Structures are given as structure tokens and as C-alpha cells.
Amino acid sequence: MSSRVVSSSPDVMGGTPVFVGTRVPVEALLDYLEAGDSIDEFLEGFPSVTREQVITFLEETKARVLAEAT
Description:
Layout: E1 6-7, E2 18-19, H1 26-34, H2 39-45, H3 51-69
Antiparallel strand pairs: 1-2
């Protein structure tokens, strides 16, 4: 995953992957989407995360999944 959108450090949330510049776990986005919530609803709940970060994360995740499937 790109270091400009997701980071992991033992000093931040015990090493849980978070959106860069925040303490918002990436898993929170996945939980919102799994529950049927929209990206806008996620962003309302976590205003420190930008739409660009979410879209970049999803695009990179999609590319990784598709690459692994081939």
C-alpha cells in the first residue's frame, strides 16, 4: 500500500494501519462500507480523512487484488 495514504507505526495506534496524518484505522473505512454506508457517511464520521485518501486507498486495493488474481 502506498505510504502516502496508509501508514503503520508502533507509536500510532499500536501499529494499526491508519490513514496518513490521522489516527483513523483503515479498517474503519472497510467496516463502514461492509455495513452499507457510503464514503460520504464515513467522511462525515472521520473528517480528518480526505476523500482523496479514501479513493486512492480503494484504487490501490483494487489494483492489488486484480494483480493477485492473474
